[in-house]
Amino acid sequence: MLQSLLLRASNSISLPLPNRHQLSPSPKPLSAWIDAAPSAGQSPSNYRSALPSLRCTAAGGGSELQPLQNQGMAAQDEKDPRIARISSSIRIIPDFPKKGILFQDITTLLLDTKAFKDTIDLFVDRYKGKNISVVAGIEARGFIFGPPIALAIGAKFVPLRKPKKLPGEVISEEYSLEYGKDVIEMHVGAVQAGERALVIDDLIATGGTLCAAIRLLERVGVHVVECACVIELPELKGRERLEDKPLFVLISG
Amino acid sequence: MFAAENGLKGDPRLQGISEAIRVVPGFPKPGIMFQDITPLFLDHKVFKDTVDIFVDRYRDMGISVVAGVEARGFMFGPSIALAIGAKFVPLRKPGKLPASVISEQYVLEYGTDCLEMHVGAVQPGERALVIDDLIATGGTLSAAIRLLERMGAEVVECACVIGLPEVKGQCRLRGKPLYILVEPRDIDCCQGM
């Protein structure tokens, strides 16, 4: 019996099993995921000293100038007819990048021109006309979804990258992994204080990377309006890790 | 090969694109004048113009595949693919793509690197466009062309925003046409070192 990491389409039909691969008979517990959940008392370096350790948002919530309706939801809750096709276009690859993980492969979504267009349209429908001037995408799959959204809503696109990829002056934010740490970087001057931003990635697992992205933007005075992902893995509690920062996803596994 | 010689002479959009490129000296190592295209994405009009130029060129060419080279090719390719009704295929560094892949090695200044594509991403006979932000020696793009051809696709053209002097005068790469928007920027005196 497969664990609940398998995606389900909004009509509750299970995805067809990938016929190219053998499924792992008993996947490891969810702790096998790469991002670690925050543990009490941890205080990573490189955070502002005013921040409590591992807090997701730099500011204490702040006022929402133009709150989005239906904050923190999944599009499938509204049973948009486009969701079923998007969901079934995503391929699950067992044991990648390591044994026990069921990897959600969005490259097959990109091969389905209607599903890819619908994916972008669903985000654009939500964010157009909301005075969002920044779409920040997390390397590398956030680079696939972020720019088309930015173009359609009239925003700029800001890549958030692994260390040493961005030339010139950057600011860095460290975050925890299951074993060790990683760093995400943004160009100095890419964004201005007071701008309203989205953070985009293909998937949210534990939320560690998204939290780091939010902190990076908020450190320079940007208001992160919402995080947006194609897929959420709710068992990994990324939504809780984002605390008061809204999360919008198309598919919740 | 260059857009200005290929129907876009005097097009004001090209000047905006050129001016959006920032030169960063000494990155990733001393002696290199890195052509940074990230400021292009900060200017919505310039970003839109860039995509529009490529879309106008490719929309009626029967192209069903846009292959983008990791990672900056990912920033341009999908928008072009969406606009022309093509699928987007990411070409990635080793170990990133989760399913069965084919790999193509290519030569760097020191050593080699490798580019991968998912098996089954393209079908024989499909017409493909390869996208990257910049072409220098053409090593990466040559590997991209080989990957697509090994799966039986026909590479119609390679498209880049910037073309370095190494490719000036060459109209083709592995027999495939190149289409390039602008030449590299010189560092201005006021940018400093």
From TrEMBL, chain A:
Location, primary (coarse class): cytoplasm
Reaction(s) catalysed by this chain's protein: AMP + diphosphate = 5-phospho-alpha-D-ribose 1-diphosphate + adenine
Pathway: Purine metabolism; AMP biosynthesis via salvage pathway; AMP from adenine: step 1/1
Cytoplasm recorded as keyword: yes
Domain Phosphoribosyltransferase: 123-242
Subcellular location: Cytoplasm
InterPro entries in the cross-refs: Ade_phspho_trans, Adenine_PRTase, PRTase-like, PRTase_dom
CDD domains: PRTases_typeI (cd06223)
Entry's EC annotation: 2.4.2.7
Protein name: adenine phosphoribosyltransferase
Organism: Hevea brasiliensis
UniProtKB/TrEMBL annotation, chain B:
EC code: 2.4.2.7
Catalysis performed (reactions): AMP + diphosphate = 5-phospho-alpha-D-ribose 1-diphosphate + adenine
InterPro entries: Ade_phspho_trans, Adenine_PRTase, PRTase-like, PRTase_dom
Pfam families per the UniProt record, alphabetical: Pribosyltran
Annotated pathway: Purine metabolism; AMP biosynthesis via salvage pathway; AMP from adenine: step 1/1
CDD domains: PRTases_typeI
Domain Phosphoribosyltransferase as annotated: residue spans: 54-163
Coiled-coil region list: none
Bilayer-spanning residue ranges: none
SUPFAM superfamilies, alphabetized: PRTase-like
UniProt keyword annotation of RNA-binding present: no
Keywords: Cytoplasm, Glycosyltransferase, Purine salvage, Transferase
Compartment annotation: Cytoplasm
Record note on quaternary structure: Homodimer.
Protein family: Belongs to the purine/pyrimidine phosphoribosyltransferase family.
Protein name, as recorded: adenine phosphoribosyltransferase
Organism listed in the record: Hevea brasiliensis
